[in-house]
Amino acid sequence: MSAVTQRLKAARPQLALLAVALLVNVFVAPGFLDLRLQDGRLFGGLIDILNRGAPVMLLAVGMAPVIATRGIDLSVGVIMAISGAVAAAGVNAGLAWPVAILAALATGLVCGLWNGLLVAVFRLQPIVATLILMVAGRGIAQLITEGRILTFTEPHLIAVAGSTLAALPLPVVLALAAAGLTGLLVRATALGLFVEAVGTNPRSSRLAGVHTGLVLGAVYVWSGLMAALAGLIATADIKGADANNAGLWLELDAILAVVIGGTSLYGGRFSIGRSVLGALVLQAMRTAILRAGLPPELNLVLMALVVAAVLTQQSPAFRPVATRLMARLKNKEAQA
Amino acid sequence: MAVTPPPVVLAARGLTRQYPGVRALDGVDLTLRAGEIHALLGENGAGKSTLINLLTGAQPRDGGTITMDGVEIDPDGPGGAVKAGIAAVYQEITLLPNLTVAQNLYLGREPTRWGLVHRSRMNQEGAALLRRFGLTIDASRPLSDFSTAVQQLIAIARAVDLSAKVLILDEPTASLDTAEVQTLFTLLRSLRDQGLAIVFVTHFLDQVYALTDRITVLRNGRLVGERRTADLPRLDLVAMMLGKTPTAESHLSRRPAAGIPAGAPLVRAEGLGRRRLVGAFDAELHAGAVLGAAGLLGSGRTETAMLLFGVETADQGQLVVDGKAVTLRSPRDAIRLGFGFCPEDRKLDGIVAGLSIRENIVLALQAKRGWWRRLSTAQQHELADRYIKLLDIRTPDAEKPIQLLSGGNQQKALLARWLATEPRLLILDEPTRGIDVGAHAEIVRLLENLRDRGMALYVISSEIEEVAAYSDRVLVMRDRAPAGLLEGDSITPAAIVNAIAADHHTRGAA
Amino acid sequence: MGRFVTTRTLPLLATVVVFVLIYAVCAAQYPAMLGLRVMGNLLTDNAFLGILAVGMTVVVVAGGIDLSVGAVMGLTTVALARLIEGAGLPPALAFALVLALGGLFGAGVGAAIHYLKAPAFIVTLTAMFLARGCALLISTDSIPIHNAAYDTLAATALALPGGGRLTLVAGIMLLTFLAGGILLHGTRFGARVFALGGNAHFAQLMGINTGRTTILVHAFCSLMAALAGIVFSLYTRSGYALTGTGVELDAIAAVVIGGTLLTGGVGGVAGSFIGVLIQGLILTWITFDGTLSSWWTKIAIGALLFLFIAVQRLILVASARYGRSGAGPAAPNTPNQATSAPASRPSSGAAAPSAS
C-alpha cells in the first residue's frame, strides 16, 4: 500500500499534467468523461485516448530504460514500419497468422539486437548507432511492401487492433500488459537497479561487477520488441502496412513521453508508469486540440512548448534557480 | 648561494577552497620568485590541483589573496589569469589534436589578411616561435602527428608566448621518456634564466632534485612547509610529504595479526605485470593477514590492485587462487572468486551518485547473484540497515542519495557494498584518503576487525603510520615496479619511508 | 602511411573512391549518365540538399547536430508563398525576411543548447516540431506561387555544352559550398568551430567563447536551411509545409559519407559535396535502371552510412591504440576537477625516472 502511494506521489507532476489535459477535453467536449458499454466494449473519450495512445505508450515503455542508460533509440518508428510490413507480407504470402505475428515480433528483436550490438560492443554513440537503422529502415520496409500500401484481410491480424478484451480495445490491453510486464521485469528482478546504475555511473557499476555490456544490449533489444508490437497495432489498425508513414516521427513522441515522465536525458532514474502517463498526456493534448476544432497542427507547437518547459526544468543551469525558489516558498510556509 | 634573493613575482596568501564536507585547501601560502623553478609536491588530495586551479582562475576561491608584482589580482576565469601573466600546462595536454600546430598556437588571435586567416604567415610565425623553444617542426601539420613530448613543448610555447611571467607545469614529465625529459629540462632551465617563475608539479623525486630551486609541500589541503631544494635531504622530503617525521613516535600502536598464518596463501601473484602499466610484482595474500602497499603517487601502487581485481588484464606472470592459476578478464571474474575492491577515486569509480545508500550497498551482491535473483526490498533494507549500524554510517536512513554523505561515510558504504558479498579478499586503495581525521582511526579499526575475522586484506595507502600499524607485510612500490618487501618487526614508518625514498641512481630506467 | 593518408584524410579519400566507383559503374552501364546534361540535372535536383549539407557540416564539425533543418526549410517555403502570394511582397524582400528569420531561429536554438546545457539533438528536435507546427498552421495545403519575377529566376540557367543546363539554383548551391568552405577553413570563426568540435572544454581553456560560437553555428545552419527553402520554392514554384520531411537525415548522411566525424572536430564541406553527389548519383542510377525502386536509395544510403561510421570508429580505435596519445575520442578528465586522480588512470607511455 505504501509503495503504491509513494509511486503516486512521485507521479504527481505527470498526473497533474494529465488532469489538465483531460480537463481541457471536458471543457471543449462536454460528455467527454461519459463511458458506455455497447456490445461488450466500453466507449468514451477516455477509452479513445487510451486506444489512440497505445502505440506511443508501447514505444515509451521500451524507450524509458534506453534513456535511463544515457542512450536514445531513434529507430523505433522505423522498426514499427518494418515489423508491420513483415506481418502484412507474411499473411499475404499465406503464412498462418500466429507465424506472421511471431515473425513481426522477431523482426523487432533482430533490429533491437543490431542497435544493441552497435552500442554495447562497438561502443558507438547511441544516437549515431540508431541513426543508421533510422535512415535505412524505411527502405527496408518498402522493400518488403514493394513500395505499396500492403493491405490484407486476414481477420486475426486485423483483430490485433479491432477486437475487444475485457471490455477494452485490444491495443489498450496489449499496451497496459506490456507496461505491466516491463515494470515487473525491471522491478521484480534486479534489471532496473542495473539499468539505473549503468546510466548513472558506468565505471563504478563495472567495478561493482555489473555486466554493463549486457545491460546496454538488453535495453535496445527490449525497445525493438516493444516497437514491433506497436507496429503490429498500427498496421492492424489501417488493415495495411504503410512503409512510408507507419510510425513516422513516433520515436520523437516516445522520447517526449519519457522526458515528460520525468526521466532525465542524462540517464539514471526512470519509471515505466510515469512514461506511460507521459504518452497519455501527449495523446490527451492531441485529442483536445482535435475536439476543439483547432488545427491538429497546433499540437506540434504545443508539444514543442511542453518539451521546452520540461528541458528547462531539467537543465542543470536552471536547477539552482529552482532550488532557491523552493527554499523561499518553504520559508514562507514556515512563517505562515 | 644567492646573496640577494630575486624579486617575488607571485605571492599567494591564505588561499582557501571549501567543497561540501571537505576543505580542499586551507590557508595555503605560495611564494614564487623571478628566475626560479619551484616544486609543488604532495600526495593525492594534498591540494595541488586545487591550488593550481585557484591560481589560474579555473575555480573561484573562498579566501586568500594573490598578488603579482605587488599588485593584487583576481584571476576570473582562465582568460583573466592569462592576462595577469599566469599560464598553466597540464599533464593531459589541453591543446586540440584536430587542429594544426600553428592553429593551436594562435587560436583566437590568428594573423589575418582581408578578413581571412593568413595561413602561410601563421605557419611561418608558428615555426619561428617553436624554433626559439628548440623545436624545428612544420607548424602546418596537425598536432596529433606529434609525440606527447613535442605537444608538451608546443603547449609551453603557447603559454609563454601568451603571457609568461608565471608558468605552471602540472606533471609535465609523466608520459615522457628519459631523453624527452632532458629536452624539457634544458628548455625550462633556459626559461628560468630568462627570469620566468616556473611551478613544477611532479611525483618523480629525482626530477625535483635535478631541476628545482625551491620546494613547497602540501598535505591534506595544508601547507607543510617551503624549503630550498639544496637544504632538504630526500628522506626529510618524503617525511614531509607523508606527514611523518622518521624519528617521531607513532600515535597508532602497531597491532599486526598474530603472524602470517601457516599454510598456502589464498592468492599468490607471481611476477604479475602488464606492459606500460606496472612491472612484474609478487604478492602473497593470506586469510587473516594484511598486505600493505606503500609508495608515492605514480609508483604503480594502484596498478597492482587493478591487475589483482581484473580491471586490467595482466600480460605477464600468473595469479594463483586456491592453488589454481586463473586469468582475470574483468572485475566480474575477480568477484566470482570472492574478491572485493574499494577504489581510490570514490566519486568516479566508487559510489553511484544519485542512487540511494541502500542501492549502493546492495549493488555488488546483487550483481554477483545475477539479475534474475533479485534481493527483495525487505532483504535490501535489512542488509543496508545492518551495515549502517555495523559500520556506524551516519545517516538518518538508507534511502538518502549516497552523494549527500561525508567522505568517510561514503567510504564505509563502499566497504559495506563489499562486505555484503562476504569476500575472501578485500582490496582497498587509499581507504582513508579525503576523510576527516576522526574517521581515519575508525576505518583502521574496521580493517583490523575484518582481518581478525579471517579476511585477507590488501591495503594501498599513503598513510605510512596506518600501513605500519596494521600490516603483516608491506610491499613497497617505486617507479611502477616493486622496490622491496618489509616483514614483521622491520615494518616501521621510518623503514617504509626509507624504502620509498631510497636513492636509486643506480637503477636503470623502467 | 604517407603524409597525405592520415586519420584526417582517410575518410575523405574513401568518399572519393566510393564516388568514383559508383560513377564508373553508372557510366559503364548507361553512357548517357556521363553527359553534362545529367550532371546539370543532378546539381539542380539536389541543390537544396547541398545547401542544407553545408549548414549541417558546420554544425557537425562543431560537435553538434541539427534535426530541425528540414522543418525550417518547409516553414520557409510556406512563409515565402504566403508573403509573395498573400501579402504581395516583392520576392527580394520576402527572401531577405525569411533569411533573417531563419538566422534568428537558429540563434535561439543555439542559445537553448548552450544555456540549458541540453543535448543538441533534443533541442533541435523540439525546434523541428515548432517549425513544422508553425508551417502547418500557416497552411496545410501546397500554395502555388504565381509571380513573374519568380518564373524568371526559376528559368535562369547557364547553357552547358552537350545540352546541359546549370540552373540558378544549382549555381547558388555551388556558391554556398564555396562560401561554406571559406567560412570553415579560412576564417577565425572556422577555427573556433573546429576547436569547439575538437574538445569544447579545452577550447574554453584556450580562451574561446564557446557559447557565442555555439549560437553562431546554429544560426548559420538555420540560415542555410532558410536558403535551401528559397531554392526549393524556386525549384517547385510553390510552398508546402511538409516540404523537406526527413531531409535532415539525408543531410546528415551526406555529411558523414563526406568524411566529417560525427564526434566533431574533423571534416569539411568538400566531402559533404561529394556525399550529396553520391546520393544523387544513386537515385539517378536507380531512375535510369527503371526496374529498381526508389527505396533502394534509402537502403544504399543507410549501408554507406554504416560503412563510413564503422570506418571512422575503426580509425579512432586504431589511432587510440597504436597512434600517438591525445587523438583519442575519450572524454577528457578535466583539469579543474576537484579530485583528479592520475594514479587511478594510467597514462600512456612507460614511466621514466630521469637520469641525473
Automatic annotation (TrEMBL), chain A:
Q: Does the keyword Transcription apply?
A: no
Query: Which Gene Ontology molecular-function terms are recorded?
Result: transmembrane transporter activity
Would you name any one GO CC term?
plasma membrane
Q: Which residues cross the membrane?
A: 15-37, 49-68, 74-92, 99-121, 127-145, 157-178, 213-234, 246-268, 300-322
Compartment(s): Cell membrane
Recorded hits in InterPro entries, A to Z, give: ABC_transp_permease
Identify one Pfam family in the record. Answer: BPD_transp_2
Q: Which CDD domains does this chain map to?
A: TM_PBP1_transp_AraH_like (cd06579)
Keywords for the protein's UniProt record, in alphabetical order:
Cell membrane, Membrane, Transmembrane, Transmembrane helix
- How does the protein's chain sit in the membrane according to the entry? Multi-pass membrane protein
| The protein, known as | Sugar ABC transporter permease
TrEMBL record, chain B:
A Pfam family recorded for this sequence: ABC_tran
Q: Which domain of life is it from?
A: Bacteria
- Give one GO term, molecular function aspect: ATP binding
ABC transporter domain location, by residue?
Answer: 10-245, 261-504
**What InterPro entries does this protein's entry cite?**
AAA+_ATPase, ABC_carbohydrate_import_ATPase, ABC_transporter-like_ATP-bd, ABC_transporter-like_CS, P-loop_NTPase
Which SUPFAM superfamilies does the UniProt record give? P-loop containing nucleoside triphosphate hydrolases (SSF52540)
Cited CDD domains: ABC_Carb_Monos_I, ABC_Carb_Monos_II
What are the protein's UniProt keywords? Answer: ATP-binding, Nucleotide-binding, Repeat, Sugar transport, Transport
Give the PANTHER family listed for this entry.
CARBOHYDRATE TRANSPORT ATP-BINDING PROTEIN MG119-RELATED (PTHR43790), GALACTOFURANOSE TRANSPORTER ATP-BINDING PROTEIN YTFR (PTHR43790:SF9)
Q: What name is this protein filed under?
A: Sugar ABC transporter ATP-binding protein
Please tell me the species this chain comes from.
Nitrospirillum viridazoti CBAmc
